[in-house]
Batch of 2 targets.
Target 1
Amino acid sequence: MNDAIYIIAFIGAFLAIIITFFIITMLRYHRRYVKLQKDRVMNEIAVLENERKRMAYDLHDGLGPMLSSIKLNINSIETNTEEDKAIISKASSHIDDTIQNMRAISYNLLPVTLERKGLFDALREFIDYSSAKSKLPINCFLNTR
């Protein structure tokens, strides 16, 4: 009878060790899987942010000066008729609108405040800008700690 109790206790302890080892292995695997998923998501975010930065800089540094140059060239055209002057003025106005839209797109892709000062200042600036444009006042209390 004593031998049977020892055998059952030994088998129970052996099964407990196997189950514990299995649970620990599964927890380690799960932690490793979660870490890999987190790293993958962070890498995707970094790639998207870098692409947004590149697009914002390309718009601002490439397209902006080109549009300004086109505007200068159009405004330097000598015309004699009022109709031609009106057409040039209208084209210049369209270029100004395009430059403003391009700056807005560039800013929306990568706000300068976000790049230089961080998320909290960028949110404050966005809230102030949105509040000024709408009739609805927006209040936000951010804890910067």
Target 2
Amino acid sequence: MAKSISGTREWAVAEINCSAGCPHDCRYCYARVAALKRGTISTPEQWKESRVVSEMVAVEHPRYPGQVMFPTAHDIVEENLDASLQVIGGLLAAGNRVLIVSKPSVLCIERICDAFAEEREHLLFRFTITARNDDILSFWEPGAPAYRERRRALELAFSRGFATSVSIEPMLDSSDVKELITELSPFATHSIWIGTMNKIDERVLISCDRTAAEVARIRFEQSDERIRELFESLQDHPLIRWKESIKRVVGLELLSESGLDR
């Protein structure tokens, strides 16, 4: 049987990066765990520094056979913005359709919109907006922009005529997901994705009582029963799409080819 597709491969056939490390320092970050395993960093604290990797920036990319995602293992931040613009420009010059995924700042998104206004038909923004509650956001994603900043970035890209979408993965406040969708959907032209927090035991360090309580809350809120209830309430929404973590629970067919759930 063909292997089912999950993670970033649901969205893209290729995953492009230009940096090591990310100042957003999300507690559930898969890339930090991978860097520790590879020995790229020796402590989790080292992940907070964004370091541009010149070899990644200089790569001449081909035209890929499908949508390309940038970035996947870090975010677009001021420290790597110039490098990110160079990479995006190279991907577009090769004829690619580029999916830009970010917990966005207005500054970075405005620069991208300015730089690629003439190529907007080849770009799709997907902004990761996991909750409206800034107390929850600042705990799980301590270095990332607050909710209002991310929403303003979404509104900016929408107003500039770019295709826009939202990723609510992982859901950090499932009790507020419907209200979050209602608030963001007027500015999403393409889709709104919903997914769970995955591999919690492997990726989240239980270092204090607050972390333990937050993990317990997340586990409860993404229990199979709660996921099925959420699916039933949103399955007819025209913008909603479900990540593999949800599909498995509710019985939707999984993909066997990369880049089809765009």
